[in-house]
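User: For my dataset I need records formatted as: sequence, then structure tokens, nothing else. Please produce one.
Assistant:
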Amino acid sequence: MCPETELDMQTQLHRTQREAAYYRKLAQDCGERRLKESEDLSRLIDQLRQTERELAQARDELEQRVAERTTELAATNDRLLQEIQERQQIADELAQAHTDLQQSHGELEHERAMLEIRVQQRTEEIMQMQQERVRELAAPLIPLFEQVLLMPWIGTIDPERAAQMQATLLRGVQTHRATLVLLDLTGVHVIDPPAIPVLLQVVQATRLLGAQIILTGIPPRIAEGLIQLDTDRRGIVSRATLQAGLTEVLQRTHPAYSSRRNGR
């Protein structure tokens, strides 16, 4: 073999050895990388599995919390619904109470109006009774004996009061079936001129009822007024005092008293 050929063979051998070393190194490096990648993949798989377990646990915990929250929300919703129903019931009761109150107010207003009317009527009745009582006290009618009455006129006499006294006297004559009436004018201080004719009307009206009036204690002014009247004054019996009038009544109603008086 020639030296050149041997040199070429050696060179080729060295090149082949270097290439073999290179490929071995390359294979070794690939194996190491694959091992490392395999280890990394294994660790990644472990991490993924751990993550899945953590996610599963987190999911379970979340589902549990969701279930618990759902239960709480359902309970809260039930309470809210119950509260709404209670409030609605309260609102209905308040509305009914308001309606009842308005109705009661209307009834109370009606009762108050009726009460005011009754009070007004009762007040008018009491005032009328008081006026009637005042008229009776202003013109008292006193039964002296059976069928004998006494009415004193006192104070100031005007036409209205004279008419009231006339009405009282005529009712008394009819009620007591009186035949004699002593009308005493001793206590009259003032008499209005228009009231003087009423006195004569009292005498005439009493006579129509079957009773006779004996006037006693006639003041001068009334006597002058009666004289000035252009009427028939016959039948008017008068005495100067109430005592004289009582004596006249006793003489007419009790003959025994007249006999004793004449015997003296």
